[in-house]
Amino acid sequence: MNRRLTKKIKKLQQQLILLVEQKGSFTDEEVIKLSQCLDQYIFIAQKSSSKLKVCG
Predict the structure, then answer these.
(1) What's the predicted TM-score (pTM) here?
(2) Cβ atoms of residues 32 and 10 within 8 Å
(3) What mean pLDDT is reported for the chain?
(4) What residues contact 13, with CB distance under 8 A and at least 6 apart?
């Protein structure tokens, strides 16, 4: 997996943890938006990882 992508995912995970602790809820609008953003990056990472396995 791309190092920049891995760093971005880890950074978003940390931000999400802090935001949930701050808001005290998994259903807060900001938490949901950040979680969805993280989901997109994870999806991209999974897609790129699966392509590497097929091609390499």
Answers:
(1) 0.82
(2) no
(3) 90
(4) 38
